[in-house]
From TrEMBL:
Primary location recorded for the protein, binned into one broad class: membrane
Name this protein carries in UniProt: Mas-related G-protein coupled receptor member H
Localization: Membrane
Domain G-protein coupled receptors family 1 profile: 1-149
Transmembrane segments: 23-43, 63-85, 97-121, 133-152
One GO location term (cellular component): plasma membrane
Membrane topology reported for the UniProt record: Multi-pass membrane protein
């Protein structure tokens, strides 16, 4: 979903003068969900049937897809988006939303991506860090988004303390 959101926001800003189909977002999300479900179903069925060689190839394919397709496209589109915001075009843009997307992607790279890399390397017998460290980072990644929304939403009033609900409303109102 981060990949779809990042690409969608980037395309909508970069191609704002071009009229694009309204259903494009739904189609992109549907394709990504279909791809994800297909890959997960293949991995699950092969691994549950104890097809070790096929299971390992399916897992490696899943990790390669995540590391070489989803993560780079998310990072590139979010970086382009962030640079566009920093350049400060003349139009009024919801800059807090872009900051949320950028922070979400940044923290995903710091806390979430190590799990995929660790799993990929583990398929080849490399273990660079204890599993507890990698799983702790993944847990932090899973729980950090509400804090990002709160901080970005509350910084509007020079980091005053406001309720989480109000901060979330401000961020998503844009």
């Amino acid at each position: 979903l981060l990949t779809a959101i990042s690409i969608e926001r980037c395309v909508s800003i970069l191609c704002s003068s071009i009229r694009r189909p309204q259903c494009l977002s739904a189609v992109v999300c549907a394709l990504l969900w279909t791809l994800s479900i297909t890959v997960i179903a293949a991995v699950t069925s092969l691994c549950l049937l104890h097809e070790n060689e096929h299971c390992q190839m399916a897992l490696i394919s899943m990790y390669i897809l995540n590391i070489l397709i989803f993560t780079p496209s998310m990072v590139i589109s979010s970086t382009i988006l962030f640079i566009k915001v920093l350049c400060g075009s003349q139009q009024h843009q919801p800059k807090r939303l872009y900051i949320v997307i950028f922070l979400t992607v940044l923290f995903f790279l710091i806390f979430g991506a190590p799990l995929s890399i660790w799993n990929f390397l583990q398929q080849f017998g490399y273990i660079l860090a204890p599993s507890q460290v990698v799983f702790l980072l993944a847990c932090v990644n899973s729980s950090i988004n509400p804090f990002i929304y709160f901080l970005v939403g509350s910084c509007r009033r020079h980091c005053s303390l406001v309720s989480l609900q109000v901060a979330l409303r401000r961020v998503f109102a844009e």
